[in-house]
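#struct-help
A.M.: can someone run this one for me? Single chain, 480 residues.
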Amino acid sequence: MTDQIEAAAQSWAAKQRAAEGLIPLVGSLYRENDVLLTVYGRSLLNKSVTGIIKAHRYARHFDGVELDLDETLAVAQQLAELDPGPSTIDLGRLAASVRTGGDVASVLAEQLAEVVGATASADAGPRDVVLYGFGRIGRLLARILIDRAGGTGLRLRAIVVRRSGKGGEDIVKRASLLRRDSVHGKFDGTIVVDQENETILANGTLIQVIYSDDPSTVDYTAHGIDDAIIVDNTGIWRDDAGLRKHLASPGASKVILTAPGKGEVKNIVFGVNSDAIAPEDTVLSAASCTTNAITPVLKVLNDEFGVVNGHVETVHSFTNDQNLIDNYHKGSRRGRAAGLNMVLTETGAAKAVAKALPEFAGKLSGNAIRVPTPNVSMAVLNLNLERATTVEELNTFLRNTSLHSPMRNQIDYIASPEVVSTDLVGSKRAGVVDGLATIVDGDRVVVYVWYDNEFGYSCQVIRCVAQMAGLDMPSLPALS
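D.P.: on it. Structure tokens below:
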């Protein structure tokens, strides 16, 4: 037993040493080369030693064993010498190729040929981003943009809000809400408020706070902001005419809404119909959190099995539009205390799927139940398929899709008998299939999809913003 204890301690220490060697390589490649290093899709940027070790353990879902940190360290060291250009590079997949296909140098030269020696355009610079509204989604978008600053093509320049406090009280309170979050925890870094100049300095990102009640009256150029993408988090303006008010402001060039768009506004679910984003598009919607959670899963199921029709029931955490205690509300039932009741309400997510996937027009019905939890929701997909299947076949397909398909950044898969909603807080995927809950009866299936309706959705929004900005970085090695 003593030998086992000592061996376990030595093994852990070796992993720590290798992870400590990876950390500076991850940081320098990101900031100097615009290269994001991942392990089977799990980002290593700003991860702790333990976080990097956990990412390597995740590789057992792909390789059957935990990924050797010494292998990935050797790959990263060789990669740094090649001076790669802007890209996302998966160390796990490269290490697997080295393990089966030869020496590190030759594998990297072959699989990374398109970015070796490439550089970003010298005059391109990062694209300015403005958050119009600074609520739940706005603050999470800010966290993501700040976390990726320094090696990304997106730069958070300003937030626009209505002034709510006297003197400098407003900006102090908003900075405090960015610093501390009851659901997502403390901001990882430092925040400094300059009340006189109305700025927030967060981890080296200087954010101008602009006060306005009307999106068409802001002069962004007065703050040195130009050609900016405006992310409207308010949901007040949802049609084309309303959203175009943002474009009347000097310095604004495009706008994306973090809510379902109305009328002819394109509703984009990244990974599903994001190829519909055209360079000339100036007004887009990132749809809703629920639409983003269910549409990728519905698409892959339809492609593989064919979906005849179905019903989507969402079990959704309460939101700010509900009342804390019973009081008047213009919506049905939403006036009842959110923290005490399950509230049956409507959802447009089922119909909204057809805006991203026209083949689903008229196929889905939907409803929603708001429940007394602050974050993480679930969609129950009750579907009739074109052919019969089994639990094993369906789950194997969904698991492989989450690991190896182009939709791997949208769909995740879990198979744990102990997972509950809080375990999914912070998930970067649009939706997470719960394999152990899957029900199959011939051609009728029930699939359960968890989703962090705040953070997972915010990650989808950022992906849309990046594509609007024309940031099309290759992800290597390419999937076969």
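A.M.: thanks! The chain has a mean pLDDT of 94.
D.P.: also worth noting: Residues 241 and 283 are 10 Å apart (CA to CA).
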